[in-house]
Design brief:
The protein is α+β, with helices and mostly antiparallel strands. The chain is built from six helices and five strands; from the N terminus they run E-E-E-E-E-H-H-H-H-H-H. The chain has two domains: about 80 residues, OB fold (Dihydrolipoamide Acetyltransferase, E2P) (Beta Barrel), CATH 2.40.50.140; about 130 residues, de novo design (two linked rop proteins).
Length: about 220
């Protein structure tokens, strides 16, 4: 096994370990979802103090140990600093991460999930997009990527408009252009109903960030 590994990814989980260390979960393009340890990351003045927080996206150099990965270097390309002052946006982002975490595994190809997550977080930053719209499109696209989307024919009272939007703009759109469309308010509400139905029937565990988000 090689001693060092370079990956591109995003920190989707960050947890304190011992007095000064961290254990982080990185969704990577090359290795799927992995767990890595960062020694001294919580020590004042550490070069990893900010680069191992949630939302950090960039390149990570890992030492491959017998039983774990250890972060040796991090080159962060996007910190998504906007979420530090936007609590609602941050919880939307954490919800996206938690949902992505549910589906991804180590050594699986997670490049599409990583790109979807990144574009969705960019969508939350945009003044042109409503957060609930970004959430609905993100959910539906993720279920499609995972091959778990319940056929719309099995959901009651799906209108032709909503069906057309999902098939034309969400199923068929590439992720880069996924959020480049708009819908009327009534269609948006129906898409939200459909995504809620899908989530409740597909996800078999509580989602903590969603519980908080729904109180904000």
């Amino acid at each position: 096994m090689q001693d060092f590994l370079k990956v591109m990814g995003m920190v989707i989980g960050s947890f304190p370990v011992n007095e000064y260390d961290k254990r982080i979960t990185i969704l990577t393009r090359e290795c799927g979802k992995i767990t890595a340890f960062v020694k001294g990351a919580r020590r004042q003045g550490s070069r990893f103090l900010a680069s191992t927080d949630l939302f950090c996206f960039g390149n990570f150099e890992l030492f491959v140990g017998r039983n774990s990965y250890n972060v040796q270097n991090a080159e962060i390309l996007n910190f998504f600093e906007c979420f530090r002052d936007d609590i609602v946006g941050a919880y939307y982002g954490m919800y996206f991460m938690e949902l992505t975490d549910f589906y991804t595994r180590e050594n699986n190809d997670s490049s599409m999930e990583l790109l979807l997550l990144y574009r969705a977080l960019q969508g939350l930053k945009s003044d042109k997009l409503d957060n609930s719209f970004v959430r609905t499109v993100f959910e539906l696209k993720l279920f499609i990527i995972e091959g778990e989307m319940i056929p719309l024919e099995k959901i009651e009272n799906v209108s032709d408009k909503a069906y057309s939007v999902i098939m034309s703009h969400i199923y068929r759109s590439d992720i880069e252009n996924l959020f480049n469309f708009r819908v009327e308010d009534d269609v948006h509400r129906e898409l939200m109903r459909i995504s809620d139905y899908e989530r409740k029937h597909l996800i078999d565990r509580p989602i903590k960030s969603l519980s908080v988000l729904e109180t904000l």
